[in-house]
Amino acid sequence: MPAAGAVAQSPPPIALERWGSFHVGGREVVVTGQPVREVLFSPGGVPARVDPNGTYLMGGMYAQYMIPANPRGQAPMLLWHGGGLTGVTWETTPDGREGWQHFFLRRGWPIYVSDAVERGRAGWTQIPEQTGGQALTLTVDNPFERFRIGAGPGSYLRQQVLPGNQFPADRESYLNFVRQVVPRFTTTDALALDAYLALLDRVGPSVVVAHSQAGLFGWRAAQERPDKVRALVLVEPATIGDPAKVAALRNIPVLMIYGDYIAQDARWPAIRANGVRFAEAVRAAGGSVDVVDLPERGIRGNSHMIMMDRNSDEVAGLVQEWLAARGLWR
Predict the structure, then answer these.
(1) What positions does the domain AB hydrolase-1 occupy (predicted)?
(2) Residue 40: predicted pLDDT
């Protein structure tokens, strides 16, 4: 702790060798049978005749990379966000602290933060003709009550936070989080997985850190590209991989992390139980899976958005130690 009256020191600048972005993946699709229409693109302009029939490129993914000047991670780290969110999940916290992107950059990991198919800076296409469904959006109270921040249904209106919860749930911070929420689909998983595989093919062998919905893509990508995943870190994965391909995971160390308040939640006991059963199947096939329940480590109060909670650096430190113990950091 700094001495009384001492001024808190800002962290040192992050030195980057390279920083940039790219889009990857996607496929061409042909749309036919749509009516031609006139569109006024801006007030006072001249209407244009738009024919929506033709060839589209859909299913692309956006990725931004930051390569530290003095890398210490033995592989790039890919940060994959959850449903209804974007790569911003990893970049900052709702109350303005540095995110896991910064935490791991400061320790010398090359970082790739992506926006999955149909999210953020990734491309869109005709809806519902090519996505198979309409996008889902969330009300302001939904994450508060579903992500184990508030104390169940109606808690947003009551502003009742779970006792000891670490998520920055003051109104300004919480609304900063809600501003990050984007539409999501339940029908584009195959497109998203293809794009994640294309990302792995481009970047090469990597450490994959996946949150929530992206747990599916982390498991499946490791099963489809076992030579491209050096380690898999799953932060409250929402689902499991392919039970028929557990043997593909035998040489990939896996860390699964779960936060607090799970036993009292309506959905998370079943979600966690499914994940643990899948982990047991991977172990039975010769794989290595470590399941960490943070409260058992004395780390309490974590919501579903662990990387945004006020103790997020403590959890990131646990991940860092786990990766270092597997020879992936020097």
Answers:
(1) 205-244
(2) 93
Confidence bin at 292 (pLDDT 50/70/90): very high
Identify whether 11 is part of a domain. Answer: no
| Angle, in degrees to the nearest 10, between helices 189-203 and 214-224 | 50
Average pLDDT over residues 225-246: 98
What region, left, alpha or beta, does residue 15 occupy, with left being phi > 0 and alpha being psi -120 to 50 degrees?
A: beta
CB 149 within 8 A of CB 161: yes
Numbers of helices and strands, H then E, in the chain: 9, 10
Q: How many domains are contained in the chain? A: 1
Name the pLDDT band for 31 (thresholds 50, 70, 90).
confident
Asked whether the predicted pLDDT for residue 8 surpasses 80, the reply is no
CA distance linking residue 99 with residue 89, whole number of Å: 8
Q: Is residue 42 part of a domain?
A: no
Tokens of 153: 């249904």
Domain presence at residue 155: no
pLDDT of residue 134: 84
- CATH code, domain with 112: 3.40.50.1820
Distance in angstroms (rounded) separating the CA atoms of residues 10 and 15:
15
**C-alpha to C-alpha distance for 79 and 208, rounded to whole angstroms:** 6
Alpha-carbon span 234 to 215, nearest angstrom: 6
Residue 146 maps to a domain: no
